[in-house]
Design brief:
It is a single chain. The protein is of the alpha+beta class. The chain has one domain (4-98): GMP Synthetase, Chain A, domain 3. The protein has four helices and three strands. It has helices spanning 4-29, 60-69, 71-81, 99-122; strands spanning 34-41, 47-54, 91-96. A three-stranded mixed β-sheet has the order 1-2-3, covered by helices on one side.
């Protein structure tokens, strides 16, 4: 269970990262839309795991590698905007959040099951 401090820092990082990435996504990564779905901070607030979603991207893992290559620039910009709120900027580790892919996959499976069920009832 995360502490109050961890939750506060996670929320702050998520809000600021989302803003920073939205402003610079096209310029830095040639991506129209990046969403920060979750930020989890270690108990000592030295590491932040950042989960990203790429909307309408055919190669999300390639885009994730592009984001990872810019980690130091992202951290520098983020530290600049949070200099009055955090003493030490945590290291950022980026991950791909495949939750939307999973939801889409499950939706397709349920649609298929519903079609098969209707065909069985009619036949």
């Amino acid at each position: 269970m995360e502490s109050r401090r961890q939750a506060k820092v996670s929320s702050l990082l998520q809000r600021e990262l989302a803003s920073l990435l939205q402003r610079n996504a096209r310029l830095w990564f040639s991506i129209p839309f990046i969403s920060v779905s979750k930020v989890m901070v270690s108990p000592d607030v030295s590491i932040a795991k950042v989960y990203l979603t790429f909307i309408n991207e055919s190669e999300p893992l390639a885009k994730l590698e592009t984001v990872r290559a810019k980690t130091s620039d992202i951290k520098k910009n983020l530290a600049s905007s949070l200099r009055h709120e955090l003493r030490k900027m945590p290291d950022l580790v980026f991950f791909y959040d495949d939750t939307l892919d999973y939801v889409e996959h499950m939706g397709k499976l349920f649609d298929k099951l519903n079609r098969e069920h209707r065909e069985t009832d009619q036949g």
